[in-house]
Amino acid sequence: MQAFIKKLGFIVTSLLLVSLYAFNSDASQPFEKQTLPLPPLHSQLDPSLGLDISNKTSSAKWAKYSVKIPKNGSLSEALDSLGISAATAFEIKKLKNSRYLTQLRVGDTLHIWVDQSRELQKIDYPRTRGLHYQLTRSDEGFKIQAVEHPVETKIVSTAGVIKHSFYLSGQDAGLSANTIMNLADIFNWEIDFIRQLRPGDPFKVIYEQRFIDGQYVGDGDILAAEVTTAGDDKHTAFLLRSAKGKNIGYYDIHKHNLKKAFLRNPVDYVRITSTYKPMRFHPVLKKWRAHRGVDYGGPVGTPIHAVGEGQIVKRGWSNSYGRVIYIKHAGKYTTVYAHMSRFGKFKQGQWVKQGQVIGYIGQSGLATGPHLHYEFRINGRFVDPMKVKFPDAAPVPKKYRTQFVEYAALMHSQLDRLTPQNTQLASRFE
């Protein structure tokens, strides 16, 4: 028993010594204030608001929340979901430039910072990749301003070879979908991408890529391009810009305008199911008759474009053509678009521009499957749309010719250096 009492006394004495040492040690150190992060708000939210709050981060000072705007959502609801008073939302609405933060779109995201007292400190609203609307707080109160993020443009180049479709070959060469489509549009008057391209045909492109804060945000304009068809038939394109940076158009090395009065095809990337023929066996009527147009097969709903500027002189129904549109172009030209599933927004009597959508592929009238029947007429006479020679547009304007010749020569030399094995970052051209 005496041994136990001695042992207990030793333990108590030791604890007292440790406590005194700890007390004396802490007394010599400065007091350090610690701030705890805000508690999560998700459990406090009203599900009926439909707000999506995520990506919460916090610091010792402020907490940041990202709020996605739902259908019929508002700034007031976004702030209320974070426990910010209605008085704050009312104060913001009275500010200059308040429309920057009150005219929100479904799916937009607001990045909101609040302090420990649930007081609003900052809002960042990325309206576009290059433009943010920001609210900041100071001793004078709130302030809203537009903050532009400068776009950096780099010039890059690539080269490829047609292996399968033009689109997939462009992807293989590293081109974005947008640039592939732009390249096809540039050469649309020169090259029939459905019929002319063959495996082994090379193509080269010099184009812009755009960055904001070091992040890639998309491609810019194509500056120069070359596509070879039939082994040695080279088609070139060079972008001409004014001194103010406005795009004037694309021209070949000989200063000819690549744009023609008419598009070669009224639809994009669909197959030709029947060509222009003096006589063919009609699949519905079961008899031989002339086929004075070109049939483009494609899915129902594929957009149909006006091949040239003109006036819609007829939009209606025909027993054989189904839903059909006739466009009268300048001078002696008329084009016909038949078997549509539905019409576009343009009415009879209205004028349309080249490339605008006038309808959609269908199977109306005498048709065995969804397709567009397209006709080209000169002075009322049927001609083969695939063989007719279109009138040229104006060449390089006289005041730009010296500038264009120098620029085209420089870019052409860059294109000559490109091969599919030698794709590289192009130097800047001043």
TrEMBL record:
The keyword Protease applies. Residues 158-278 form the Csd3-like second N-terminal domain. Pfam families: Csd3_N2, Peptidase_M23. The keyword Signal applies. InterPro entries: Cell_wall_metabolism_enzyme, Csd3_N2, Dup_hybrid_motif, M23ase_b-sheet_dom. GO terms for biological process: proteolysis. This is Peptidase M23B.
